[in-house]
Structure formats: C-alpha cells, structure tokens
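Input (structure):
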C-alpha cells in the first residue's frame, strides 16, 4: 500500500510502498478515504512523543482520518465491517497513522461513526480541530453575549471555535491577516475582526473595550504576545492557549484563570460534533485537498504557519 512515512525522527516525509497492516485483536482495519492534516503530525515526526510512547519505523504519519471498516478484530463490538468511521487514529506504537491507504486502529481509540450528512473527505478534517475547539470553549466557560478574543482564527481550530462559539451566542472578535480572512471569519459567525498586519490588536481592543473582554483563546502566539493578549481580559475572566506558553503565576497576577490547554480525544466529543454537523449547525472548513505526493510541501507550509483552514489528503476516493 502507499503511505507517507519517515525513516527516522526529523527526516523528510516520503511516499513509500509499505505492507498493509495486519489486523490484531481489539482493532479495526480501515480503508482510509482521507486524512486530515494538523501541526501535531509534524511534531510527531520531530519526536515530541519520543521516550513517552513506542515508535515504529518507517513511521507512517497522520492522526486524523476517515474511512470504511474492512475487517474487525477479535473482541470488537462497537463497529462492523462496512461502517464508515472517523476520528483520531493515534495509538501505540506511533507510526501506524492515517496517511496511508489502510490503517489499523484500536476500537478504544477516539473514533466513532462518521457524520452521515457530509462526505468522508470532509469528516477527516474534523477530529483534532473540532474536538480542540469544542473542549477549549467548554473550559473557557463563556456565556451568551460575553466577549471572546480569538487569536489564530483562520486556521482549522479557529474556524471551528468561531462556529461553536456563535452557536452559544458568544460575541467573537477574531484576528486576521487580510481581507480574505476577515470575510471568512465573518461568514463563520465572528462579529468583529482585527487585521493584526495593519492595526495593533492591543490598542484596538483597549479602545473599544476599556473594561476588558471576558475571555481569550490564543492558538498561535509566543509567551510574550500571549501575555499581552491576556492583559486585555478583565479580572475574573479567563485566557487559554494551545501553544503551551502560559504561566499560571503570570495569569494569577492579572487576576484571571486559564493557562495551557490540551485536547483529550474521545468518542463522546466526536458524537457531539457529529450531531452538530448532521443538524446543519456546523460546517467543515476544508480549504485545500491534496494528494499524498503533495504532503511534504504542505507540511513545510504548516511548519511556517502559512496554512489556512483545513488541509485534507485525498487517499481512497474516486
């Protein structure tokens, strides 16, 4: 089978011909329709989990995927052959990922039945970004008409945060880098946008909201910028970052709660997203569809934080 893999940590990804994975007890064999790309994918090949989980080389990349179950292993009860599923395929050993024509995934992984109202290509874009958005908003705890500043709004997670926040009546101010981004976030449900290439986000927010905003979600900033953005939050508010640059003591001195946020993938979170998609409340922001051969270049764009929306790898479709 074809797969995108690396031969060692920090090696350049290549399209390789590798053996089809062997079904094991408690796992399902998936014919992968598509894989969703996330920055965590290249962090894995850089060795972010080295020493924490076993790794297999050649290491097949990819966490998010969607496809059809070809076979079920001994003891599997949640799924059957022919089921369309999606979710996070990551499991031990690292290296049996979703950037492949076939993948084996433990039944107990963060996978569930795919939404029926969208193609599997779109479903592959949802798991990590969708669950991150869903869970970070829940952790932030804002209520109807409270004000949220979203930094890093035009990426995959940001696109889901805007929609899910708007569904709850939260007033979203999104940072963007151009007019195209401003139009995109407005369509998704943001009430305001600030072009950080033209204006100072700090000055704009302070001028318009002198008493402070209610919450901050920052998906991209370094520690210094995150602290600047967090200073815009009123006392008693909350600030969260997925970039792991927050210091609890600094936030405490500002009189706000929050800190670093990590997603915990689970089937219940996926099922809630599925319900929102099937009901038409949530749409999947697929920006770019690529082939396996395009993956190395797409990863370089992601490393430079130049990706917009979600990029999906088309694998077994058509």
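Output (sequence):
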């Amino acid at each position: 089978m074809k797969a995108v893999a690396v031969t060692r940590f920090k090696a350049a990804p290549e399209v390789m011909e590798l053996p089809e994975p062997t079904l094991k007890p408690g796992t399902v064999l998936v014919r992968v329709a598509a894989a969703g790309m996330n920055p965590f994918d290249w962090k894995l090949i850089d060795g972010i989990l080295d020493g924490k989980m076993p790794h297999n080389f050649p290491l097949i990349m990819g966490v998010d995927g969607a496809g059809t179950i070809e076979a079920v292993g001994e003891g599997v009860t949640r799924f059957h052959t022919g089921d369309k599923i999606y979710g996070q395929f990551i499991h031990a050993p690292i290296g049996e990922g979703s950037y492949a024509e076939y993948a084996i995934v433990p039944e107990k992984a963060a996978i569930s039945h795919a939404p029926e109202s969208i193609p599997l290509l779109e479903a592959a874009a949802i798991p990590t970004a969708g669950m991150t958005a869903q869970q970070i908003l829940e952790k932030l705890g804002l209520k109807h008409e409270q004000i949220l500043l979203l930094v890093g709004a035009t990426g995959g997670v940001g696109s889901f945060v805007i929609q899910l926040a708007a569904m709850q009546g939260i007033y979203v101010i999104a940072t963007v880098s151009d007019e195209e981004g401003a139009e995109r976030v407005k369509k998704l449900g943001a009430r305001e946008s600030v072009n950080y290439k033209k204006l100072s986000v700090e000055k704009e927010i302070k001028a318009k909201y002198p008493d402070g905003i209610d919450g901050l979600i920052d998906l991209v900033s370094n520690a210094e910028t995150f602290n600047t953005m967090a200073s815009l939050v009123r006392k008693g508010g909350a600030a969260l970052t997925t970039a792991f640059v927050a210091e609890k003591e600094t936030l405490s001195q500002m009189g706000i709660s929050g800190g670093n946020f990590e997603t915990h993938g689970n089937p219940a979170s996926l099922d809630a997203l599925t319900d929102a998609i099937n009901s038409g409340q949530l749409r999947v922001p697929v920006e770019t569809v690529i082939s396996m051969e395009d993956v190395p270049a797409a990863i370089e764009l992601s490393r430079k934080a130049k990706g917009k929306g979600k990029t999906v790898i088309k694998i077994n479709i058509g």
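Notes: The longest strand covers residues 27-36. The chain is about 30% helix and 30% strand.
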